[in-house]
C-alpha cells in the first residue's frame, strides 16, 4: 500500500520563518544594526571628553569608516549610506546651532513623525506594521482581508506607536533640560534595543494570527 501525496501546505504557512530574516537583511543584518549605532556612541564619548567640534568630526569619521568597511566586505551599502546621511544632517544642525543637544534633534523629530504615522494608520485601519512588512517582502496588501492578520498588525502598530512615543517623551524631556550626555545615552538605549522588541512583538503577533483557526461563518 503506497502512501498518498503529502497534504498540501496552506499558502503562507511557512512565511513567518522567512519574513523576519528578510526584514533583518533589509536593515543590514545584525552587523549593520550594530554599526549604525557607532557614530552616535562616538559622538557621546568624544563630546563628553573634549568639545562639540571634535565630537562632530569623530562622528562623521566613524560614519565614513563604516561605509568603507562595508564596501570592502562587499556588504549591502544602503544601511551605511542611510546612517551616514543621518549623521551628516545631525552634525550640520549641531554645528549651525553650536549646541551638542541639537545633534539628537533630527532623530527626536523623526520618532515623533513615525509615532504619529503609526497611530493614524491604526485609526484608518491600514496599520503600518502590515503595510511595511508585506511591502518589504513583496507580498502585496491582500492581508487586510484577513481579520486575524488585520488585528495582529493593529496590535503591532500600537506597539510601534508606544516605542516612538516613549522616545519622544523621555528624550524630549532630556532635550529641554539640556542634559546632552544623558540624552545621548537615552538615544542609544532607546534605539535598536526597542526596535528589536517591537520587531519581535510584530513577529509573534503575526505567527499567532496565522496559526489561529479561521473564524466560523454562520
TrEMBL record:
N-terminal signal peptide: none
UniProt keyword terms in alphabetical order: Membrane, Transmembrane, Transmembrane helix
Provenance organism: Pseudonocardia alaniniphila
Pfam families reported for this sequence: DUF3159 (PF11361)
Keyword Metal-binding recorded: no
Transmembrane segments: 40-69, 76-95, 107-128, 149-170, 182-206
Protein name: DUF3159 domain-containing protein
